[in-house]
Design goal:
- The protein has 335 residues and is of the alpha+beta class.
- It is built from 18 helices and four strands.
- It has a four-stranded antiparallel beta sheet with strand order 1-2-4-3.
- It starts with 10 loop residues before the first helix and ends with a helix.
- The relative contact order is 0.10.
């Protein structure tokens, strides 16, 4: 598993598909080959895999070509609130320096694909974005998106949209660099030794306007637990869960999924056991989550929800739901 290949919230996919629509790319094109649909992305409890996000990026690049500065445009659309609790942890930090430290510690809660590190130097801090491990067809997009996003987030933390950061890129300059100059406040240096942003020393220890010691401690603890949970959901269990969620009304059996993953059902059972779960537990987890969501909408009857989840009769669904929640679907919906 790659270091960026963790389950992620749908917020980034929403940013990307929204960017596509504004550039004339409809959802059905940007989501092609992802098994995602716009309604699924609107579900705040949904997850998107890193590979699904990469497919969205590829679809946009194929539709619009490289003349559109998509990476820069995308990066400027990510806000602290886009990143959920990670963004709150940064904004409650005492200084930009401490916010960067927290951000890097829990960077896998973000939508970043590049490997980020910080290097202290005489004129400030050098934030390095290493994209050497990324697929070549999306590398430039991801480096530019994450550079633009990093600068944009730093300005939000400081409440200073005029803050200027020196920016360097390894790749060659584009035919027109005006979007880069607009985003960064100056023309980046291209064909540099690394992809990096230099944070001036005078900004590093400037107090942040929303700093709060208690909130910082609480949100960092939440980041720690959320990251542990996402790591637990990665690996083969995450892959199987995504496959089952794509077809909840007619879930494939373990032999079918194992064949899709090019392994035997025995090997799949063994690997799931090593990750602390089982095929049946994952199927139950998917059905339980979908049942909760469908009951919350109050748009479908209990009988219809049971059918959508693959139960031939309502009593069977009710029995399963009582096992999950300790009450009937009707009681859960009323509550």
């Amino acid at each position: 598993m790659s270091d960026w290949d963790l389950p992620r919230a749908p917020a980034s996919a929403l940013v990307l598909t929204g960017l596509g629509v504004e550039n004339g790319v409809p959802h059905e094109v940007s989501l092609r080959g992802t098994r995602l649909d716009p309604d699924a992305l609107a579900d705040t409890q949904a997850t998107v895999t890193a590979h699904q996000e990469l497919q969205i990026i590829r679809n946009l690049l194929n539709a619009l070509g490289e003349d559109v500065p998509l990476g820069i445009e995308a990066g400027m659309r990510y806000h602290l609130t886009t990143h959920g609790i990670w963004g709150f942890a940064l904004s409650s930090s005492p200084t930009l320096r401490s916010a960067i430290a927290v951000g890097l510690r829990y960077v896998n809660l973000t939508f970043a694909f590049t490997r980020m590190s910080a290097v202290e130097q005489d004129d400030g801090m050098r934030l390095v974005l290493d994209g050497s491990h990324l697929p070549s067809d999306v590398r430039r997009f991801l480096v530019e998106r994450e550079m633009a996003s990093s600068i944009h987030l730093a300005r939000q933390l400081l409440s200073d949209q005029g803050a200027v950061f020196e920016v360097h890129f390894r790749h060659a300059a584009p035919p027109a660099s005006a979007p880069h100059e607009k985003a960064f406040g100056m023309r980046p240096t291209f064909q540099s030794a690394d992809n990096a942003a230099v944070v001036p020393v005078e900004l590093l220890d400037r107090p942040l306007p929303q700093a709060d010691a208690h909130t910082a401690a609480v949100t960092e603890d939440q980041c720690r637990r959320l990251l542990a949970d996402r790591r637990a959901r990665a690996g083969i269990a995450g892959t199987v869960r995504d496959r089952l969620a794509a077809q909840p009304g007619d879930m494939p059996d373990i032999e079918t999924v194992a064949a899709e993953l090019h392994m035997s059902s025995r090997s799949l059972r063994r690997r799931l056991t090593a990750e602390g779960t089982s095929y049946r537990a994952l199927a139950d987890e998917v059905r339980e989550h979908l049942a909760e969501e469908l009951l919350a909408t109050k748009a479908l009857s209990v009988e219809e929800i049971g059918r959508r989840l693959g139960y031939a009769a309502t009593p069977a669904f009710t029995t399963a739901f009582k096992r999950w929640k300790g009450m009937s679907p009707q009681a859960y919906a009323r509550r």
